[in-house]
Fold these 4 entries.
Entry 1:
Amino acid sequence: MTHWYNYLLFYLWIAPHLVLLAVAIFLLKQRLFSEFPMFVLYTWYEIAEFLLLFTIAISRLNHGSWYLHTYLVTLAISTALRFGVIQEIFNHIFCEHGPVDALARTSLRWITVALLLVAVGCAILTSPQSFGNLFAGAAWIGRGIAIIQCGLLLFLFLFSSLFGIALQSYVFGIALGFGILSSVELVQWALSTTDLSPSMARALNLLPTAGYHVAVVLWLVYLLVPAKQILQPSIVPAEGPGVGIDGWNSELERFLQ
Amino acid sequence: MTMTVYLYICLAALLATTFVFLALRRRKSVIGLDQARSLMDSLDLAAFRNLIDPEEEAFLQSRLPADQFRKIKRERTWAALAYVRDLSRIALEFSRFAHAVQTSSDPRLAELGRQMAYGAVSLRLLALQATGRLFVAATFPALSPRRPDSLLDQYARSTGLVMRYGMLESAQKRAA
């Protein structure tokens, strides 16, 4: 049982970062860093964070609260970058849609304020017994952040579908990955402050990395698989007799009749 | 575990399910050009124009008693609202169609798709605004809603672009 658990724990810790490395390299090869600088930065940051934490965990540096402090600091930076990525997705989707872009920006601001209030409300209603425990405090904040990120991504999907705006394959994949990751983190942070049985606590330990694994696989799949063109323009345009001005004129005449 | 924790788990499960549902729904097929044309034909624009015509309204007001006019105006506004809802649905279908055309490997079609998408999204926004205004007007007949001229102009522009796409497609078919 312990062997099996340890293998799974290490697999779920290491494997997602290897997949993420593939995502990061693919982003660079496709020159998507100019389109999604924040997401590219996020992927490389996550890889660096993993290397740092993994080194601390397996080396003799893991004394006292060294690992926990490093984990919390890197998590804070990672969370800030995620907000940046969400903003980047919004800009990317709506920038070409004129009046809807302005509406999207305004709505995003108000939705963020509303979600912040919801997160604060939830935090007040379920505040921990004491903030003496650093991890309990982090869980309290993490839960609120997960609520905000889930809400923002849900709003992104609903708002784009309200206007029939089709997200490019990889943009959709990035947003979907973050959506699932935020949902899993919401459960993780909610459960982490409760008294759990040892077996439940061990299972909970696997939850964030498993969610992360799903997210990075989604990113890779949506980046590699080209956008499915649901509607293919029936014929590839070709220059030739009948396609020039004459062709257009005759078609116009036919429509005007 | 407390009740609150269960609530968080349910909320997260609901959110994750919603994200997966949205991913699956993305595969929903887009209408074709013929369906776009039949949608355009299905909308009786002349009737809609008549329902929102201020002169027609003034004529009815001059001929009918006040309470009867209010009743008629409310019915006309509800009817106009039904037209705007149809127009809004058409705009949504146009937008999906345009975004699909935008993925074309041909730069001319992709550019046309981009223009169509811009127009369809603007049309949808105007239709949603008009829906809100007409709903208020139907609830409070004393208020006179602004005539949705920009909505009709945008609809004309969008249908023009769809027709242009149709012409290009037909010309290519004939040449092939």
Entry 2:
Amino acid sequence: MDSVTPMETDSGDDYGSASPAFTRETPGRLQVGKQGEPRLEVLVIFTDAAGTSAALQMADELAQELEAHIRLLVPYEVPYALPLTMPAVRVEFLEGQISNLAGKPRLEVAAQIYLCRDKRRALQLLLRPHSVIVVGGKKRWWPTSAQKLAQALQKDGHQVIFAELR
Amino acid sequence: MTNARILVVDDEPQIRRVMRTTLVARGYMVSTARNGEEALQKVRDERFDLVLLDINMPGIGGMEACRIIRSQGDIPIVILSIRNAEKEKVEALDAGADDYVTKPFSMPELLARIRAALRRSPLTSPGTPDLLNLGKTAINFVARRVTVDGTEVRLTPKEFDLLRYLASNPDVVIPHAKLLQAVWGPDYGEEVEYLRVFMNQLRKKIEPDPSHPEYLLTEPWVGYRFSLPKKA
């Protein structure tokens, strides 16, 4: 993760938009296959530090076997009381947290932080149909937020793998 | 049978070198391990079609390694040993070995025993055809190449292993757990979502219409089935 690039904010509908305020990624990570097809992408959605770490490990294994690359999406909800580009937690802090997670050896990850009002809606706008997604977290009889997120993404038609944190 | 992956486990570097050279020349893919511990690690991390295992090694030794490998899966194990006593052979076979070869052995005999053991291996069974034509899709299992409409399609090693296993069991429903263990190894069995992702990728690559698959069929709640095209 080398650069922080401000992106245009979708100002039309502040309520539901993905509003990607910042994107942070490793340049040149997206590779193109032999036949001009973009390389498959395994997406990891940030849940919490431990869950995301488990998800990244699983994504790494999967990406190697599928010859894909990994992208970590961090949809961060900003309360309405604050401007969208001014989250309660400094973006630099979020970046540091993500750098620690994605900076493990051997792991090649392009990470992107999206400041949004509604995480679910943001993901709907961000994700391409039938994406391969890894969500990490604890599994409980009463669904955890990570489980709920995985279920919702599956409902949206994505291929979701749950990396269970034991 | 070419393309089979063989793990040679021996503490003597010369033997490992000779085996590697001979087996690679016969078209096998060879990996080596210096002792039982390294062999167990490799069996856990990679998929092999056969293990050639020396009995006398430092550390946990061949017999114990054989027991552990057998407890984790069905990989054929051929024991190599300088001991020719009946007791040793019985012990090795009871520990899960499929065959027992006494050193010194002739290479043609060992190769014949490898071929015989591989015939019992699920991933290299004779049921796997060398070439398979599925309409516009042609699969060459020996060369590990897939073409669609004459254009080569790149399959990852894991995708190819999965396809090969399914194709070697045509029109048979293979449960998720069996498929995962055969292709990913003994530590797997519950990762149904994994399979789903790989099957989707395979369908995208070989099916004419991935949303309505003709060859790679899902058997809901059970597993997958490879359906051969019906002859007119």
Entry 3:
Amino acid sequence: MTVDAQVIGSRIKAAREALGMKQEELARILGLGSRQIVSGLERGTREVKAAEAVAIARALKVDLVTLLGEALDTPVVQWRARPADGAEPTESEFLRWCERDRRILTLLEQRPSADRLPRHDFDLACSTYVDADRLAREVAASLDLGARPARVLAAAISSRFDITVWYLDVPAGCAACTRGSHGAAILVPRGDAPWRRTFDIAHELFHLLTWRDVSSAPPGEHSQPADEHVEKLANAFAASLLLPGETVLDELEERSVARRVKLVELVAMARDFGVSLETLVWRLHNLGCWPDQSAVRELLDSPRLRGIDKASQQGQWSEPARLPERFVQSAYAAILRGRLSRSQLATYFGCGLSELPAQLAEFGIDESLTELVSQDVSVGLQPGDLDAPVTPCAQK
Amino acid sequence: MPRSRPRCLILDAGPIIGLHDLGIWAVFCERFGVVVPRIVLDDEALFHSRDEMTGFSEKIALADDVAEGRIVVGSASLNELAVVAATFSAALELHDGELEALALLTLHEEFDEHVFCTADGAAIQGACLLGVAERCEPLEELLAAVGLVKSLTWRYTREFMAKNKREGGERRITGFGTTG
């Protein structure tokens, strides 16, 4: 079999355009003399060495195997807010991880699937906050999220809905989601506060559950931010999901004395539920506490409350793992079955081959122990060894 | 008496790192004709390691070995990589450098006499699917052949190689993992 240079050239061109990159820029990154060389690559008139192709793939934020493999549908990405300096590089990075996830599952003979994610017939244009709240209750019940949903949400949507959450280095607030042939995934800014990340996940879950098929949209219009009304519904859904009404009101009552709650208790409650103070206070407002919106704003602007909130964040800030637990476990399963190379997984981790055991150890994988098991060390038994009469031990 | 021609090998990143860890890389290169795929050579990230004593990150640099002729660099074309990758279909995913090693092994006449030394189960199984299992040798075997007996981790042993050859052979027979 040979690969049509023109086909690969067209994939290079598509990957470059998806990044919004000009031929001149690619030529500069690759250290090529002129734009014409890139043009020759894309037209398939210039022979490419494998090592050059690797450099091209890296510059274009795709894996070489993607350039070599069959062309797949362009997945749709829905942004909450696009990065100010252009969404294309981040989107390519996000989709590359989704594609890697799909490939790993394929290696394990599992089909990446968005089928386990229920699709709700939700008329987004006509829906209200009450509808979003109802959906949140249904989802919380089906996922069995309990009284503190933030603590289990990411794991629950991964195991029950097959949604992979990727924490990437993108600007704050630039969360996104995608649903398609590669499955369903959520992109969360890695550097955000833990409570912000959890809210992002809940918010994007709403978009995935009410996903509209826009694959028939014209090229270039696939990846769009949702409209303002839908964003408000997603926020309402997220607040309801993370702060179940009855539970939150019961907790507030527990923490109140004579119908007054100390500011420090309010902040402690936000941390306990794994949400921001703003999310908690506005949720309480929507549940009937402090019905006056200006009073809520005044409360949130209170320097004293801000100070307590800031102090409470000390020691609560944690970074998410570099890669999703499920992805790493699946990749390691593929390694054990001889279907994925360790060097490739090291590349995914962005680490050296020697550092891979330490990276895996962070996910509870002990390579040395696994190797012992793989060696199948056994002791030979002689005929009759298992026929010895069983007699009780003589006890003194 | 003329010296016999040294055996020639294509190495991927695993054995290169292992030989450096054992401190016998230079000796090894004297005893064998070593070929390193261009992509493996260029992927500096793979050769980073963190020194356990100092905590500093170090890396293995092979540029001097190339410049002074101690190792040879092998380069495949993109088309050759595509041919090898297509053989595996969607059932095997290798590092690009391992794909290049297998392309050199199977598609380049100048490397017809070379054997492939790898410590990666998927790469060994890839060689099996390409029908060149007999040209894979474990580091343990190669070191023993030149009297460099060392205690090696599991991935460099004959047993590891045999296990993956067996599994790769089964996959080749059952047809799983090839495009047919």
Entry 4:
Amino acid sequence: MDRRSFLQVIGTAATGVAGSLAAPGVSRARSDKEEKEFYGILVDTTRCIGCRSCELACAEVNGLPLPDITDTSVLETERQTSETQWTVINAYETDKGRVYVPKRCMHCNQAACVSACLVKAMEKQKSGHVTWDTNCMGCRLCMVSCPFDIPKFEYDKSLPKIQKCTMCWDRFKEGKIPGCVEACPTEALIFGTRRELLEEAKRRIYQNPGTYNSHIYGEREAGGTSHLYLSSVPFDQIGFRSDIGNTPYPEYSKGFLYAVPFVFVLWPVIMLGMNRAIEGKEKETSEGHE
Amino acid sequence: MKKTPLVCLFIVIGVGIFVLLGAMTELYSGVAVNDYPIVVTDVAPLNTLEEVPISFYHDKHVRALEEEGCESCHGRNAEGKYLFTYPPGRDETSRRSLMDAYHDSCIGCHDDRLAAGKKSGPVTCGECHVPREGTGWMQPAGMDYAVHHTHEVAMNQQCDACHHVYNEKEDRLEYAAGEESSCRDCHRDVTTASGASFREAAHFGCVNCHMEGQQRGEKSGPIACEACHGKAEKGPVMVSADIPRPDRGQPETILLSSDDATMKDVSFNHATHELTTNTCRACHHETLESCDQCHTSRGDPAGGGVTLVDAFHNKTSMRSCVGCHNSMKEDASCAGCHHSMVDASMSEKYCSTCHTGPVEGETVATYMNRPIDLSAILPDDDIIIDVLEDQYGPSTVPHSAIIRNLLDISKGNRLADAFHGDDITICAGCHHYSPPEQAENPPLCRSCHTIDFNPEDLGKPRLIAAYHLQCMGCHQKMGLKTDDCTSCHAAKGDVAAIARKEPGQ
Amino acid sequence: MEARAETKDIRNWGDFVQFILRELKPKGDRLLTPFNVISAPVIVLGVVLIIYRLIHGLGSPVTNLSQDFPWGIWIGFDVMVGVAFAGGAYVLTFVVYILKSEKYHPIIRATVLNGLLAYVFYAGAILLDLGRWWNITNPIIGNKFGVNAVLFLVAWHFLLYMLAELIEFSPAIAEWLGLRRARKILGALTLGSVIFGITLSTLHQSGLGALLMMAKWKIHPLWYTEFIPILFFVSSIFAGLSMVIFEGTITHRVFSHQLDAEHSRSYDDILVGLGKICAVSMFAYFFLKVLVLIHNRQWSLLGTPMGYWYLTEVVGLVLIPCFMFVQGSRHRNFLLIRVAAVLTMLGIIINRLNYVFIAYKWYVPLSDRYVPTWIEIVVTCCIIFTEIWVFRWIVNRMPVFRKPPEWATKGFDN
């Protein structure tokens, strides 16, 4: 091989490497000495009485239209959260009678929406809150990716936002607890670090055998979430999916993302090599004929 | 290649025919709706099953063999009684022999009838070894006080009609008065050299007697499977205190003691406990012998490793005293307080409720009719809770009425009264985590339950939640309605003010 | 009538402006062709609707998107199918410039042009689907870089690939403008931009599939697999080539006056060759699909309604066209190859739409499912027609089908 070809190959490989370093998915180690814990909310559905004070408080705190919480007919059907209602109560008939479950963003430890967002509009704060920012493009990939189908898009607005529970991130920055926790009259919702909430949840299970189903939903689901749920009945009876799995959802894209640097480096080298090899062969044949 | 499309067409048609045939065999199975299929489970010697267990339609066979009679399948012994081991030539020496015994019997008969031109049953593997629907109807059959009483009346108190013991020396069955007990004491799960299995013995004894009665034209018991084995939809059998319990001279009260006991003996009222069960086996689960025959102090293999103490004190087993008593706490009258109470079983007072030493036993009648005077312990006023008055109006707690209600329930139940004998104990149902000596003047709820959410102590609800969890929790467990907030406190103005509340307000 | 660009030298801006103004005039004899009559009103209506959509937002009546179905035909068809169909560019540039196969050289420019226009228009159609479209520059300018996102990679690749395609096509532009030095430089850049383009294509064709990896339980198990990116990549090969065959059939008739005899003769061989590549890649794809089915042990699902739909897509619109390509190539049956191409394209459309709103949340009852509104359909048609119009404008002026001017090919490889 002559000098020119050699330099071409090296140049191609170097470009590929440079490209791969710039490519997404390659994590650069950053030493982050700040010790921060995730905060979360423990939802004890054995305590929820379906009063919907949390829905009202959430609307109040976030400037959303106030729902009429005295209207209990809405509990007859299973509701989803919406762009104007970031938490909703659903009622389920189970073996142990009627169980009420507040549904809202799970604030996953490794959130699918955060991993999907190409402009980091969906961001996982160091305190565990998954928040949305206005640099969002409105591509709605977060909606496709979320295993709990939480982010809701304001289709009917000209300046639409993605709306979901923020675990009262703004109030947290002021040192307050989330509005729904503040409002709940039976402390079905409590707020604290995820570690403390897990301890409290386990304490309740161990000290009250027979009352609780021996599982904390959110402890491991989707790789762990900041919203943890306790229940007296199996979770699939109260509207929770049992096929979420324990793998963090961003891991499902990891296979592809890890392949990117390899393709960036290998493809150019291979193609250049093939091109040169074939050119070489053509030259040989044409030279051979001369 | 012009032939290619034609070949493809033939392949498609061939596959289609196969699929159709398969579907047809599934659709046509010819089973009547009311039949009670019995799943053949008496095949333990086969160990692992390669095929689906047979669902056997006994009723169809009875109908089909009405002329030929039961002898077609059931052998008879020397005295002419039917045998209920199937198949008649049952050979359990190997898997093969047992399978062959079944096949020779069933398929053999079907083949014979086919050859004779009569209506017959299936002869191929796949027609019998298929899972069927509707096999869940069968319940284990057994004796309970109600059935026993029916037999007592029918047999005119002749216990020797059914009860026997085995005289080993003379190798025969004989009647021993005063030693009547459950069949299952000797007739166990599987047939051994010392006796038939309970299943065999029960069918042999019961069904034969019923059949003979019917043949004599007398009023007799049933012989159809579903009459004894019942349908699964029936709920749990209610305990009725009216049915007379069997009398074989058992004492009314017994002093439970043991040689190496360190605590006082327990004065056990057998008569009142008989009224709380449906069969003797509820407690005498293996034999009517004394418990310490198998449950020794150290735990014998005969007792399944369960020590004597554990036999009486295990907290979850329904055969243990403590376990059965604990299960009573789940009743709606009791669960209001007991569902959230800390387990008090390590207190001295708890043990001495039963470990009293010898006492004079009361009869049930005198206990139920004793007068109750509560005037000494009822406070005068209602209590008003108004500490959180800014969101909702004050709540008026009918304190005296609640106490009276709870005391009524407690004193009306012998078990409850034994443990709540000291009436102050009832107060601990709501005034928890405070010393018993303070019971007449307990601390205020807000002394421990702060008004605002306390992130340091996640296990202790804040005041509003403490009230709701305690009050509503009890009401829910006792079956009272709890979905109307205003039945306890009137709403005051803007309920949305809840969210705007600053800490400290 | 021969349309010939005048290769006069452009010496200054005045010359350039005059040249452009002249070129903007329509060419060809008739203005009211059937195609023009149908497409022009659609384009005008589409532009009006686009303005309405940009003002009004994505809600009813513009689209039928919902919280359950956030992606509709603008993503499913315009972007995903459009980009898959543009895959012909990277496959053919690989064959022509890397493998140095002269056989496909006659159609390479048209294919690259189509690829460029596809990305500009269809990937550009993303702008319409974005709820907050004014922020579209955010991932480019750094507000903020979501580097862990697959979509970040896809967005950047689209941009860079448009650049690479532009460079690949720019020699034709230089020839049109008569810029000789530019033509020489751009010609030398071709191999580099082709290699870059193929690398980018591999990643963003599979990347479009990787977008769906986190929607694990929402996509029917017969379609969801960890190998979706690979399936998307392999299917883009034959999707692109089928589009090349389809589009070639039309353009070779419409622009037949531009083709010289040698080109017309070689086109049959090209068609057969394309058919063979399609057949091989489709068979590989089918085999991969079977592997996925076996690996996930999903035989029982084939008997369900969605299973029949899956079989329609995989057997009916992949395996059968594959055999048709085999037969067509073997016996030089051009009609069979063309029909196979159309069936393949239909299969690709159904495949991509499955991932976006058919097999996606297949369990939602029909009354709550996404069905495109007439506005979405009209806007899609508008974009397609506009792209065809631009294609036609370029082909009538630049040497795409016509042979390039003498001075361009003398002494160069390309």
